[in-house]
Each structure stands twice: as structure tokens, then as C-alpha cells.
Amino acid sequence: MSGVSIVGKIISVTSIDNAHSVEHATVDCAELGIWKGIVLIEDAFRENDLCSVFLHDAIVPKRSELDFMERFHWKVSMRRFAGVASECVIVKPLTDDPFGTILDSILGVTKYEKTLDFKMAGMMKGSFPEFIPKTGEVNIQTMKRQKDSPMLYTPSVVTLKYDGTSVTVYRKNGQFGVCSRNTELKEDESNVYWMIAKKYWLSAMLPDDTAVQFELCGPKINSNKHKLPELTGFLFSVIDLNTNEYASYDNVVAMGSILGMPVVKRLKTIQLESFDVDELQEMSSRLACVDAKEPLEGIVIRSAGSFPVDSKCSFKVLNLNYKH
Q: Which of 9, 11, 77, 255 lies at a CB distance of 3.0 to 4.6 Å from 324, suitable for a disulfide?
């Protein structure tokens, strides 16, 4: 199941100190996890009430019940209101659908995709290769329900989440390809994805039956939040296309050395005993920052060892103090 909007069910509602018009609600979003958000006191939500929930990166429909989202350009982002975490938008039910129904197609909800200032028109070569998993980490809220995850009680690496656009480059059976998040792209020197592939000589250096995935950051990309003087790729995944496994973090570092590409910054190594959202969000706000001051987007936590591409052994924890 996937989506960025759903029929949820209220778990609890608590008051907020010095807040006279809003409360803090915890909502069950079925397979999409447990989330928290601000609700209006006048909506009088109570335990087990159904609601419409819009998750992080949802572009909500322009309708009267959601007019308050216009000042946020209709995009849902994790942030703090009245000093408490607001991870999603929760409103009275907008449909008669049952609990757990994904509302994306029903309400016309789309997911935000980062755009680039560089040339992209006409560059599509084909769909994203089916033999490679797309980039995009699940949120910690989605992991909440996993009681027997292989990530628990084993070493995990915490890395910085870079705010750019993801790139996938592969070589399979001698064929070389460069992809954006959703499509494979034709070779073109004015295309930013091919520009970065050529910067690191990936067509010559990448081993056969291997895919690498990295975050492309720099000038003209998402306001260059990392203040980089030039286009830079930060390697975060290496995939063995024969075994369909993600490489261990140490092997990602080794590949970065081979390719001359920086690797996402390792912040610490931990051993998870649970998917405690509050604890991990505190860690994200503490570690995802520049010089302990300016907030960055968040952190990614992944198993330190190798793991199959179809297993959930990595997730992101966004920084609620980050300015979108």
C-alpha cells in the first residue's frame, strides 16, 4: 500500500499549553503508520473518529475545507506548531470511505516532486528500469508497526539526509544508463543528471551489474541548502544487480573511494530496540544541522550490513525544525 493521503482513525487527542484553538492528535493511518498532527478544537475529534489525513509531501486539493493550506502553497510539510510536532494535516472526513482507504486518486492528491532549473524537456529515454528499486525512504512513522524488523537489535548507521534530487546510474550486461527519480534519460551534455555522471566518470568507472544511487546537490538545485559551489553527488546506495542486494555502508564508502565521489555523512552508529518516533525525531533535530545551528532536512537510518532490495531496512526521520 502506498499513498500520501488516507482515511485515518483518531487514537488520542490532548490539549496544548497556551493554545486556545488547536489540540494535538495522534492518528492511526493503517499501513501508512502512526502520525501526529494539529487539529482544531472546534472539530471536536474524539478517540476512534474517522478523519482525512494528508501526509508529508502531499499536495492537497484546493477546496474550502483546506483553504488554510494556501499559505503553505497547498504542500504538507513536517513542522512545529504551538511548540508541538505536526507531521501531517488532519481534517474532518472529506469522503464516506472506510478506514484505511487511500484517498490520492479519490481526492486528486498528488505527491510533491522536486523540480530543477536545468534543462529536462525531451530528455526521457524510457521508464525507470524495473530491475532497480527507485529511491525514496519511508518515514519513521511507517516503520512504527514493525515489531519483527531485521533492523532491531542489530547495528544501524545514521547518516545525514541531503536536500537535493536523487540520481540512479547503472551498468547491466554492459549497458550504461542514467536515471532521475522516475525515468531513464537520454544522454545530453546540458542535462544535469548526465552532467554529474560525467563529472565522476561513471561510464568508465562503474563496475558491471552494479547500480549506484546518490543525492545531487549544488547551485540551482532546491535552493542549494548545503551551500555548495558546484554540482556534487553524495553516494548513499550501491546495489548488486546479480544478488539484488544493497551493499553494506562500509562497501558504499569503498565504492565512493573508487568513484571519487563523496558519501553521505555518517553521524553515528546505533542499535535500535524499537522505532520510537519521539526519540528519533529528537535525534534528527540534534544531528541534522550545520554547526549545531542551521537545521537541515533530517537523517536516514539504515542497516549497517548488506540487505535485500525488497526488505525495509532503512528509513528517514525528518527534522521538524527544518525550514522548507
A: 77
| Run of H or E including 34 | strand 34-40
- The pTM (predicted TM-score) of the whole model is 0.86
Nearest to 154 by CA among 314, 267, 11: 314
Measured distance CA(172)–CA(128) in Å, rounded: 14
Side by side, the strands of the sheet bearing 155-161 are: 266-271, 155-161, 298-303, 314-318
- What digits encode the pLDDT tens for the residues 88-110? 999 999 999 999 999 999 999 99
Q: What is the pLDDT of residues 121-175, one digit of tens each?
A: 448 788 999 999 999 899 999 887 777 889 999 999 999 999 899 999 999 998 9
Strands 88-91 and 34-40: parallel
Dist. CA 221–CA 187, nearest whole Å: 20
Cβ(75)–Cβ(81) below 8 Å: no
